[in-house]
């Protein structure tokens, strides 16, 4: 703290004081019994991606694709997977998107999503 100097220390303490006051005001705004207010505060909070969110999204998407492949009836009741071009291309694009996102082939794309 001595290396910062008194002015920088004053700015830092003022910042933390304001942050704590905002947190207390936000918590006081919603009572413990007000369920709708608490749910609204969850929806208005900004989404911050982290490793857990990303892994859950990628695993869930790959599982949905796998289940879709396993449960698709195909011939003789429906067109085969390769004969139904829109379906095949959309599933192939989804698989490609999961692979690109999981292995970070394009880091700028991962930053955007």
UniProtKB/TrEMBL annotation:
The keyword Transmembrane applies. The chain crosses the membrane at residues 51-72, 84-103. Keywords: Membrane, Transmembrane, Transmembrane helix. It comes from the Eukaryota. This is Uncharacterized protein. It comes from Spumella elongata.
């Amino acid at each position: 703290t001595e290396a910062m100097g008194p002015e920088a220390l004053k700015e830092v303490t003022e910042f933390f004081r304001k942050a704590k006051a905002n947190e207390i005001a936000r918590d006081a705004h919603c009572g413990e019994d007000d369920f709708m207010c608490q749910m609204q505060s969850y929806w208005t909070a900004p989404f911050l991606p982290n490793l857990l969110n990303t892994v859950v999204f990628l695993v869930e998407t790959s599982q949905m694709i796998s289940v879709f492949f396993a449960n698709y009836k195909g011939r003789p009741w429906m067109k085969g997977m390769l004969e139904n071009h829109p379906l095949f291309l959309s599933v192939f694009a989804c698989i490609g998107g999961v692979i690109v996102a999981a292995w970070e082939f394009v880091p700028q794309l991962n930053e955007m999503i």
